Amino acid sequence: LEEFYGPDLAEKKYAILSHCWGVEKQGEKEVSYKEMKKLLFIGEGKRKEIRGRTGYKKIVDTCKQAQKDDLKWAWIDTCCIDKTSSSELSEAINSMYQWYENATSCYVYLHDTAGNSWTNRRDSPTIPKWFTRGWTLQELVAPKVVHFFDQRWEPIGDRTQLADILSEITRIPQHILKNEPDFERPGVAQIMSWAADRTTTREEDRAYSLLGLLGVHMPLLYGEGKNAFRRLQLEIIRTSNPSTL
Description:
By secondary structure, this protein is an alpha/beta fold. It folds into 2 domains: about 5-180, no CATH class; about 185-245, no CATH class. The protein contains 13 helices and 5 strands. It has a 5-stranded mixed sheet, sandwiched between helices. Helix 7 (about 135-140) links the parallel strand 3 (about 105-110) and strand 4.
């Protein structure tokens, strides 16, 4: 693990992962920042346990794909954010949209799909879990290049190729998914409509996951519950041009 800031970060070409966090009760365990930092210095038994996790395999597969794409660096939220530090977590969430936007390539890992069956809505009425989560909305919109992979890390297609079905599932216009120029930035109401059916594990994250999409910043107060959305609305009113609401 290495840390980069400001100009140093701007010069780096890196891949970034978009995925659903594993559910520990279902045996899907992620690897934390502190575990990754200590990986080379802990006992063999613990190291073997960590390397056997589904979350560790995601890290390895992301790095393998980055190598194929000739990228030296990769960023993965599970092991690149120290969630025990409230200040680092707040900085990461307020910077997240920019980090996805500046990535050379974003890899969307659909852990519950095999092949591209989900792209045919007639044959597959259910959609991958990834499309129902709050944080993945900005991870779909922000990057310049987005590649989709199934549970075996087989490529499905990129965001431009899949724009038709992605627009049908997410209600995001195709011109946004295709990064077509000369279109106005979507308004607050439109962005809110994209997020209406999405869920988050923490209630506050329903608001925090929209910060980058709405172009606002605010401190995080986990434990505030529904008040996070009230603060978000106030921040939108304070910073927005009324004509964009």
